[in-house]
Amino acid sequence: MLTDAQMGQLFRAMLQFSQGKDPAPADPLVMMAFSFVRPSMERDAEKYKRTCEKRRAAGTKGGRPKKQKEGQSDFFSPESKRFDKPTKEPDNDNVNDNENDNVYDNVNVNGPQSMGGDGGTETPDEDAENAQEIVQNPVENDDDVKDVENYCKKNAA
Q1: What pTM, to 2 d.p., does this model score?
Q2: Contact by Cβ (8 Å): 113, 150
Q3: 4-38 burial string, b = 16+ CB within 10 Å, else e?
Q4: First vs last C-alpha separation in the chain
Q5: Are 48 and 21 contacting, i.e. CB atoms less than 8 angstroms apart?
Q6: How many Å apart are CA 42 and CA 120, to the nearest integer?
Q7: Spatial separation of the C-alpha atoms in residues 154 and 157, rounded to whole Å
Q8: Quick one: the chain helix, strand, coil %, rounded to 5?
Q9: For 47-88, what is each residue's pLDDT tens digit?
Q10: CA–CA separation, 47 and 22 (whole Å)
Q11: H helices of 101-141, where?
Q12: How far apart are CA 113 and CA 122, in angstroms?
């Protein structure tokens, strides 16, 4: 197993070899590891050169032909017969008559809720005003926090 420093030396040797240089790592373990990697790098470089030569030769021949040969029709050309067929109408007779009859009959059986801990003497309008005041003004003391906690506990059930 190579240390991090040895892995760095191996990586540098691979980079130098890919740039056409002949690396010579000083560490014998790194040299041995590089000797295993070097043949595959040489093979890959040769394969890449052959691919480049093939593509260079194909590029000198030119690109796609600009016109079709005589007797051949282009699939997308206006002269193509594929556009002559009439379109077929769908055979489905789907009718969607969806109606939503949502009725909400929510009734508060607990009576008016209160934010304060005084037994529920406040009306819903006063609750809303207190909540709005707490939201608009930052928390100034722990009593406001307790009021909000009590309100949440009562309404969670």
Answers
A1: 0.38
A2: no
A3: eeeeebbeebbeebeeeeebebebeebeebbeeee
A4: 63
A5: no
A6: 86
A7: 6
A8: 50, 0, 50
A9: 999 999 999 988 888 776 666 666 655 555 656 666 667 777
A10: 20
A11: 124-136
A12: 8
157: which 2 tokens?
A: 């059930």
pLDDT digits (tens, 9 = 90+) for 120-137: 555 666 766 766 666 666
Cα torsion angle, 9, 11, 12, 17, sign: positive
Which position has the token pair 């909540």?
Answer: 131
Instruction: Quickly list DSSP for 18-68.
Output: HTT-----SSHHHHHHHHHHHHHHHHHHHHHHHHHHHHHHHHHT-SS-SSP
Tokens 């801990």 — which residue? 117
